Amino acid sequence: MASTQDLVARAREAAQRAHAPYSRFHVGCAVEAADGTVVSGANVENACYRLGLCAEQAALSAAQHAFGLREVARIAVAGGPMRDDIIGGAEPITPCGGCRQAILEAAALSGRDIEVICAGADGDDWVVTTISALLPAAFGPAALG
To answer: What is the pTM of this model?
Structure first.
């Protein structure tokens, strides 16, 4: 398995490939499988805002294709605002509500309380939490019987 620092670095690298011309807020996500395989994704914005894609959704899609959502063990998300062609900000960012729901779906499939590492674009300050802490009292697959 990758170290937390390495997984955050992969998320930060992914943020460099984001397409965020409207918000100029670049987000990258790295998803690690139980066997240590890592895939990544970045946010992709669209002029029709609701058609954009969050980094977490992009990375989870890549994970499904690479090894399946049942294997997801950890997720790192990192990013910040782009200024003068540099992504900056040490404040940890967290997944939006929709992405938390998508991570919960992977957790339900994997049987794991997926670890979520939240980091800024730079610095060594990050928050390590779980999807159950980020989305308490969640509505998930189990609620559908």
So the answer is: 0.95
Instruction: Encode burial over 98-117: b for 16+ CB neighbours within 10 A, e otherwise.
Output: ebbebbbbbbbebebebbbb
- Which residues are annotated as catalytic? 56
- Rounded Cα distance between 46 and 67, Å, is 28
The answer to which of 11-15, 71-75, 121-125 has the lowest mean pLDDT is 121-125
- In the beta sheet, which residues pair with residue 24? none
Residue with tokens 């499988």: 33
What topology is assigned to 4-135 in CATH? Cytidine Deaminase; domain 2 (3.40.140)
Give kind and range of the element (H or E) at residue 134. Answer: helix 131-134
Ordered by start, the domain boundaries in the chain are 4-135
CA distances from 110 to 21, 48, 68 (A): 35, 33, 9
Q: What tens digit of pLDDT does each residue of 107-127 get?
A: 999 999 999 999 999 989 999
